[in-house]
Amino acid sequence: MEKVRKMERVAALTKILADRPQHLFSLSYFSELFGFAKSTICEDITTIKETMGHFGLGTVETVAGAAGGVRFVPTVPADEADKLLHELACRLAEPDRIIPGGFLYMSDLLFTPHLMVKAGEIFMERLAHLSPDYILTVETKGIPLAFMVARAFDLPLITVRRGSRVTEGSSVSINYVTGSSKRIQTMSLPKRALPAGARVLVIDDFMKAGGTAKGMVDLAQEVGAEVTGIGVLVATAEPEHKLVEDYLALLILHDIDEHTKVTDIRPVLTTG
Asked: Per UniProt, which keywords does this protein have (predicted)?
């Protein structure tokens, strides 16, 4: 096999690490892949670490010991995070996004990969201290955001269904009351999806009164899991007291005027 030059190794290493954030790769894996000694690989990793740090693109961590290795932890600089949230707020404030009932059309943004990748990394940075084992969301619009949060954490994503699926085996179902419309709905989770004692982070795209989020919390607890936190992309300012507490929102929707087509939505800044 032809020897791989340093520049080529660094490029390939960077691609592999960045494609799977938070995943711990052994030095042996890279040594065998490129056909170089671990000491040489360590030098390449040092180069990547310094470059990532210089441009504020993330951190490359090395873990010592037999079970150790190297992993890439993405970071979003405060000014970049605030710029993204300002962009999302401005786009969500566009007059033609207002939907009757005080809602905003968000699907195009939720299904735009580069926006949700960054949003997922912001959630990961702000909620990393919760140390979840799984990311939990409910179908369907919140799935892209939750998936990118799961990617940033390198964790599995579990999707709660609005109704059960025969193809997923036996499920646990609960009835919950939506906080805004006060309607009774059903959500279900396959019994094998979450092990008892698992630490769960709930992610959703929108929260008004918190009924859906509370339903997910109750469902997770029903199967013996522990909900460590809740993150939502957009939460309404009113009602002030939601059905859940201690949630993180990246944007706060203060008011929608359907007559004047003016939307007051503000980002929760990293420096705020």
From this structure: DNA-binding, Transcription, Transcription regulation
Q: Are the beta carbons of 58 and 80 closer than 8 angstroms?
A: no
Residue 97 and residue 55 share a domain: no
Instruction: Name which of 143-147, 179-183, 189-193, 231-235 the model is least confident about.
Output: 179-183
Domain count, the chain: 2
* pTM for the whole structure: 0.92
Range of the domain at 12: 6-74
Instruction: Please report the DSSP string for the chain in residue order.
Output: -PPPPHHHHHHHHHHHHHHSTT--B-HHHHHHHHT--HHHHHHHHHHHHHHHHHTTSEEEEEE-STT-EEEEEE---HHHHHHHHHHHHHHHT-GGGEETTTEE--HHHHT-HHHHHHHHHHHHHHHGGG--SEEEEETTTTHHHHHHHHHHHT--EEEEBSS--GGG-SEEEEEEE-TTT--EEEEEEETTTS-TT-EEEEEEEEESSSHHHHHHHHHHHHTT-EEEEEEEEEEESSSSS-SS-SEEEEEEEEEEETTTTEEEEEE--TT-
Spell out the SS3 assignment of 78-91: HHHHHHHHHHHHHH
50 and 124 share one domain: no
